[in-house]
Design goal:
The chain is α/β, with parallel strands linked by helices and 200 residues long. The chain contains eight helices and nine strands.
Length: 200
């Protein structure tokens, strides 16, 4: 029997995580995306409840104090977090859950999952993937090309990316996103392997 997975995917900003996750979700109807909470403002085209739950700092801190987050982190000055209950419920119902989160959040999820009982569905189905850009220079071109950030923000993101890339070894799988279709095929293959009971 195929198992429900908790799929954690991280990459530096501009590394291609969002587009690869969209491709995975389009190809795999057994997987749903976890919708994170954030205190940042919505970007053009983002829809509350679909891309993120956009909440106030006060509301975020209340939920944090109540222990409702599986992970939470401050990234580029904003708070982000994944609510525990919807993730656990989806996995119990047989759906795999995709978490597209940064390396801080992934480390928290990894630690949370390791503390669960051995038979817990979230622990049994846990897997993580780091999406690596081919180089920092390629990442710089992508960030400039998407035209969303000022030059000083891009430099800050590149410095953060360098630090994040040093933590790639913490992940079970690293995929270099040089060619998008190749990276997407690699991602789908590793998810299928884990779903069919591959190495935990």
């Amino acid at each position: 029997m195929k198992r429900a997975l908790l799929i954690v995917i991280s990459s530096p900003s501009g590394g291609g995580k969002t587009t690869l996750c969209q491709r995975l979700l389009a190809m795999d109807d057994a997987t749903v995306q976890s919708v994170s909470c954030t205190t940042r403002a919505a970007r053009p085209g983002e829809v509350d409840g679909k891309h993120y739950h956009f909440i106030s700092v006060a509301e975020f801190e209340r939920r944090m104090a109540a222990g409702e987050f599986l992970e939470h982190a401050k990234v580029h000055g904003h708070l982000y977090g994944t609510l525990r209950a919807p993730v656990a419920e989806a996995i119990r119902s047989g759906k795999s859950v995709l978490l597209a989160i940064d390396v801080q959040g992934a480390a928290q999820v990894r630690d949370s999952v390791r503390r669960l009982p051995a038979g817990d569905a979230m622990r049994r189905g846990y897997m993580d993937v780091f999406i690596q850009p081919p180089s920092l220079e390629a990442l710089r071109r992508r960030l400039v090309g998407r035209g969303q950030d000022r030059p000083e923000v891009i430099e800050r993101r590149l410095a953060a990316a360098e630090a994040e890339m040093r933590r790639a070894a913490e992940y079970g799988t690293v995929i270099v996103n040089d060619d998008f279709d190749t990276a997407a095929a690699e991602l789908m293959a590793v998810v299928e392997r884990e779903r069919n009971g591959g190495s935990a």
